[in-house]
């Protein structure tokens, strides 16, 4: 199934000049990875601190775009500028999980969202990323299959935050969106596991 992740190559092309400039300035992929995680924690903390205020909600979509750029940049620095490392691989996977948790768990405190469903979404998101990583362990490639990958989650949470930040009244749309995300995350986990297994010979 299609995912926003599929447009990543075009986004990377736009960021390639900036990536080259950062490389020339001595910035490393690992530094960008750590920065993205730290900024995610800071953004999520603002939302948890004032979950009923509009300004943290408006900060979230703006930062999610920045985070997407940072994630693309650290990948290009690693691949295109000989900065791949075992530490970088660990930081990248753990950093993404930490960032997702820090950014999305505070939505449980935002009016209109069901706390239990938000917690379930965060848990399923972690499982989906773990499923993608486990694919490597069985001899397949790292799986990024959708329909509810990292970029898709960022888009939906960012859109929800933007709507609420602009004054849209909490209500039925949130009650529809949360179960839909849960269902799509379950499908994502299934897709990643199925395609990983399809890449490897049967035992």
UniProtKB/TrEMBL annotation:
<dbReference type="GO" id="GO:0016020">
    <property type="term" value="C:membrane"/>
</dbReference>
<dbReference type="InterPro" id="IPR043130">
    <property type="entry name" value="CDP-OH_PTrfase_TM_dom"/>
</dbReference>
<dbReference type="InterPro" id="IPR000462">
    <property type="entry name" value="CDP-OH_P_trans"/>
</dbReference>
<feature type="transmembrane region" description="Helical">
    <location>
        <begin position="21"/>
        <end position="43"/>
    </location>
</feature>
<feature type="transmembrane region" description="Helical">
    <location>
        <begin position="116"/>
        <end position="141"/>
    </location>
</feature>
<feature type="transmembrane region" description="Helical">
    <location>
        <begin position="55"/>
        <end position="77"/>
    </location>
</feature>
<keyword id="KW-0472">Membrane</keyword>
<feature type="transmembrane region" description="Helical">
    <location>
        <begin position="153"/>
        <end position="170"/>
    </location>
</feature>
<feature type="transmembrane region" description="Helical">
    <location>
        <begin position="89"/>
        <end position="110"/>
    </location>
</feature>
<dbReference type="Pfam" id="PF01066">
    <property type="entry name" value="CDP-OH_P_transf"/>
</dbReference>
<keyword id="KW-1133">Transmembrane helix</keyword>
<dbReference type="GO" id="GO:0008654">
    <property type="term" value="P:phospholipid biosynthetic process"/>
</dbReference>
<dbReference type="GO" id="GO:0016780">
    <property type="term" value="F:phosphotransferase activity, for other substituted phosphate groups"/>
</dbReference>
<protein>
    <recommendedName>
        <fullName>CDP-alcohol phosphatidyltransferase</fullName>
    </recommendedName>
</protein>
<keyword id="KW-0812">Transmembrane</keyword>
